[in-house]
Amino acid sequence: MAKVLLIEPDYRNKYPPLGLMKISTYHKTLGDEVVFHKGKNTDLRAEKWDRIYISTLFTFYWKKTVETIKYYMNSVKSPEDIYVGGIMATILYNEMIEEEGLSEINIIRGLLDKPGILGDNDIIVDTLTPDYSIIEPNETQTYRYPVDDAYIVYSTRGCVNRCEFCAVPELEPVYKDYISIKDQVDNIKESSGEKRDLLFLDNNVLASKEFNKIIDEIIDLGYRKGENKFTYINKKGRKISKRKYVDFNQGVDARLINDENMSLLSKVAIRPLRIAFDHADDRYVKIYTDAVRLAVKHGIKDLSNYVLFNFKDKPGDFYKRLRINVDLNEEFEKDEETRGAKIFSFPMRYSPLKGPHSKDRKYIGKYWTPKYIRAIQCVLVATRGVVGPKKNFFLRAFGKNQNEFKKILIMPEDYIINREENEISGNTDEWWSAYTSLEDKSKVLQIINLNKFRDIELYSYSKKEKELLIHYIPKKKR
Predict the structure, then answer these.
(1) Residue 272: DSSP 8-state
(2) What positions does the domain Radical SAM core occupy (predicted)?
(3) pLDDT tens track of the chain, all 478 residues?
(4) Could you tell me if residue 367 is inside a domain?
(5) Which of 83, 140, 153, 227 could connect to 106 by a Cys-Cys bridge, CB 3.0–4.6 Å?
(6) Domain containing 467: what range?
């Protein structure tokens, strides 16, 4: 019997490590002892393990992930007994094997979708049922995943698109039209008990030619709209009833939405329907807005979308897409048939998969600046990362038009976060007056766009430039 340690670095993430959960099942099937932990642990590090698996997530977690790998290097007999896989390991495979101290570990690219990858046997790890027991909090493993009461499944794999900002073509290069979800759910239920929701990790489910079969399975599993009650007994012995929902978490492709598949989706208890809104050109805007209106027409009223920014878009494009969603919300509220439909937007900052900034979050797009990025972060502090359906709140947070939005982007950080306080005190008006009074703004805009004000040397600026820049310097440094 081998001693196996499963490690996920201690970054904050919503979903449990599905790959490690399947590896746990694999080793328990072989009769091995399996321990899971999130992050570093001195007691586990002090033990000797026959094999250690470490999962990776986004590439910008490079530093934390590499530190975690090196932390456990002496907990095995040989570096070859450490296996590292997942998104970052696949995307930055060459960089990992070139990292000092990691050249001898086993780095796995892509999926565990063939026999013999982890041992001399015919077991295909990727098809195994995830072991949910390892993510249950205990005395040493206290992290609780926000999503821990859902059947996490795939009905397809891969994507028919090849978007340059996406890692899926490298992670799942072959598109698979159909994978039975009933078998997955039945196996999870048998091994780990009943779950409430049904969470899909499909990357492009609407591309499947078997989409109607997928919907039929969802309905057969008890997720028909209006018939989606989930009843359980709580710790106090009381019978509790809640609604259970279907979530295609990776979103659906607006370009593939049509009357037929929206009619099918409307039959299941989907909440929310996620639709990506990645582009602001007129053609894509029409595709997106038509798709949203069609979904609402079919009675799907809980909608959500990811709004990618800092890629090839301009700040104005970002504002335009957010405003379109807010205006759609207002449109739906005016019509009795669509009233109650709501769209929530989730801004998603682009980070490159390759290149010098793939290992951190410092990439700045062609039309963006460090100040613009920081301004968006400051606004999202107030909105808690979500742009909701309330128009007045949006206009206040992001501006009534693109000119006001551009003003917010260059506004001092404190004036964005503490908007009302600084407006009442007159600080915001003083700042704007100082800015607009400058005939030549090129010199100050250079320093503003860099967003580095702590060590600024004011003596090299004119009187009017100083009157403006003083607003950007932290109060403790003035």
Answers:
(1) P
(2) 154-308
(3) 999 999 999 999 999 999 999 999 999 999 999 999 999 999 999 999 999 999 999 999 999 999 999 999 999 999 999 999 999 999 999 999 999 999 999 999 999 999 999 999 999 999 999 999 999 988 888 899 999 899 999 999 999 998 888 999 999 999 999 999 999 999 999 999 999 999 999 999 999 999 999 999 999 999 999 999 998 776 677 888 999 999 999 999 999 999 999 999 999 999 999 998 989 999 999 999 999 999 999 999 999 999 999 999 999 999 999 999 999 999 999 999 999 999 999 999 999 998 889 999 999 999 999 999 999 999 999 888 999 999 999 999 999 999 999 999 999 999 999 999 999 999 999 999 999 999 999 999 999 999 988 878 888 899 999 999 999 988 766 5
(4) no
(5) 83
(6) 426-477
Is 378 part of any domain?
A: no
Domain count, the chain: 3
Residue located via tokens 């100082």: 434
Q: Is the pTM of this model over 0.85?
A: yes
Query: What DSSP string describes 141-173?
Result: -----S--SEEEE-SSBS-S---TT-SHHHHS-
Same domain, yes or no: 19 and 53: yes
Q: Residue with structure tokens 């990506």?
A: 276
CATH (domain of 332): 3.80.30
430 and 471 fall within a common domain: yes
Backbone angles phi, psi at 114, to 5 degrees: -135, 150
Rounded CA-CA distance 102/105 in Å is 6
Instruction: Specify whether 7 is located in the same domain as 81.
Output: yes
Looking up tokens 């001399």 gives 120
Residues in the chain: 478
* Domain closes at, from 127, 157, 179: 127
Cα–Cα dist 209/256, whole Å: 12
